[in-house]
User: Which sequence fits this backbone?
């Protein structure tokens, strides 16, 4: 199973760009490497345009690509969602301390 996500925003151009960027994103281990690549291929110094494009991608990512844990929290009542989040936080802290 791959980690690629196929958005369906209704904007064919945005969906296609998103799919192409994912292929490149997985090629880099660190954000600075990806950022350098992105700025090289963007071929623009128009930061307003770049910011708008990046915000669109983030919007699609957050709206359509939910982690199963997030979906679970949305399906259960608020009290159980809070318990799940607390449990996950505690388990992550334990795991990080064991590293």
Assistant:
């Amino acid at each position: 199973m791959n980690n690629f996500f196929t958005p369906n925003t209704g904007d064919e151009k945005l969906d296609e760009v998103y799919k192409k960027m994912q292929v490149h994103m997985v090629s880099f281990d660190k954000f600075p490497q990806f950022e350098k690549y992105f700025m090289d291929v963007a071929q623009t110094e128009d930061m307003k345009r770049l910011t708008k494009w990046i915000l669109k991608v983030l919007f699609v990512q957050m709206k359509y690509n939910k982690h199963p844990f997030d979906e679970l929290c949305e399906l259960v009542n608020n009290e159980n969602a809070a318990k799940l989040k607390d449990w996950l936080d505690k388990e992550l802290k334990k795991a990080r301390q064991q590293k």
